[in-house]
Amino acid sequence: MANIIKLRKGLDINLQGKPNYETMLTSGSDKKFALVPDGFVGVVPKVIVKEGDTVLAGDILFVDKKHPTVGFASPVSGKVTGIIRGERRKVMRIELEADERIDYKTFSVIDTASATKETIVNTLLEAGLFGYITQLPYAVTTTPESNPKAIFVSALRDMPLATDFNAELKGNEEEFQTAITALSKIAPVYLGVGKNASESLKNISNATVTIFEGRCPAGNVGVQVNHILPVNKGEIVWTINPSALIYFGRLFKNGIVDLRHRITIGGSAAKETGLMEVLVGQTLSSILNGYVSDDVMHKRIINGNPLTGIRSTIGDYLLPHSSEITIIPEGDDNDELFGWIMPRTKQFSANRSYLSWLMPKRQYNLDARIKGGERHMIMSGEYDRVIPMDIYPEYLIKAIIAEDIDKMEQLGIYEVAPEDFAVAEFVDSSKLELQHIVRKGLDMLRKENE
Fold first, then answer.
1. Is the pLDDT of residue 314 over 70?
2. Rounded CA gap, 142 and 322, in Å?
3. What element of type H or E holds 285?
4. Nearest CA to 327 among 273, 262, 263, 261?
5. pLDDT at residue 294 greater than cutoff 70
6. Between helices 117-126 and 242-254, what is the axis angle to 10°?
7. What is the band of 240 on the pLDDT scale with cuts at 50, 70, 90?
8. In what order do the strands lie in the sheet with 260-266?
9. What pLDDT digit, counting tens, does each position of 276-286 carry?
């Protein structure tokens, strides 16, 4: 019997353009792929391939300069066509031209029931998949030297327009269970699910399953860690996107790196919504082919969901941890008369400024405007109402802005990730970029403690 934790704080944002899970969309054909190092937070990439090299799916393209045993695998077989660098020679992406048929590098098949911790870790390292594991504190890609006291996986996605993991899991249940069994050899595994999770998720073995009932961001793995096994100074927990567990399971069962997964296309500006099977690193132009209008001038394409995703263009690539592509109106072509003073019924407000609060089931067509400029921070309790964690979020943000490391530690920065402040950023009347501020604070603390 799964444990149940009910959360009272949070905010559900009901947006138009929810994915149609009955529709399976087809991506366009494009041989271009790219692996983007920025998709793995905290990694300093060192490229180990050259332009013109031929690679198999599963060959290492780059490693973490600080931890060279942590490599990152190619999603396809083919030719390395470009190593694109930005300012100060920062590696932006490694571009590939894929073969007509993907050829896989083969690895040893692992019996996860009898495998040791060292075997599991070494197999993930050899296959270039270990870098898909992140950690708290710091919310960065972890290292094989770290010793986690637990491993957390959240299969509950409740951000607006996020992909329901039940749809992604369908047909991959055995691989998911294989990965859970393997990870349980490293540390105790905690799986967070929603009340509508499939029976296969609720009945997973070799993991402690907890059902989280409440509003967004109940699905954030940081929130779940906070309620089950809080992180103290000097402790580490690993956190893993559930999609990566399917990759791990395929590796252990079949001995190959297969980075196929199902994502959704959603958002009010999408011509059609639904599921699509894609590969990590695929071009957004091939994914969105036919599902977004040719005129993208007044539309925002987001690699991820509207609150935590990365603003992208049609020429970008699917990031390693993205489970959805969202298209919403940019809002830069709106010209409203008496904008803020009008009695609105079609606009969403978290504090009942508009009459729309009388219609709780309404779906909103929100655009990307922030509707106001940055201003002084107001201590009004806004963050507390939407962050279901045992921390003082407003004081923590002030400590980060002041670069007061002692206060940051006392106020619980070791337990948080930037995404935990996504809903607070949405409701923030001061219009502060809270996720950016938290990321800056975590990087500062990590540098101080190294």
1. yes
2. 19
3. helix 284-287
4. 273
5. no
6. 100
7. very high
8. 24-25, 274-279, 260-266, 324-329, 299-303, 310-312
9. 999 999 999 99
